[in-house]
Amino acid sequence: MRTVILLILLTLSIQAELKYQNDYKTALEEAKKDNKYLFVLITIKNCRWCKKLKRTTLNEQEIKENLAKGYIAVELDRDSSDYPKSIEVEGVPTVFIIDPKSGDIIRDIVGFRKDKNDYLKWFRYVENIEE
Asked: Where do the TM regions start and end (predicted)?
């Protein structure tokens, strides 16, 4: 019975909107503690493509499930957030997957991508690194 209740709660929480942290250092510590990767979304305040990416592609159920399972998501403002200089932002939106142990950038996507499969390929790539 507990298992069923936990599965229902997990499903409902995933269906809710994904919560992004807004502090890189806090997200990094949580990722290390939980043994998860960082999913870093770099945006700016009035970027319509950034908003569209969050509202559409990153709001797809399959994306949210993958993020909940293996990542700590953090959204940072390119102009006002504090993040490592190794994260070089060429444009917004930009998404980085970062190994929290080494600080290495594993993958990045610059710009709006409508196709969720671009992100799902990333997730599979990261899973293969772990094996």
From this structure: none
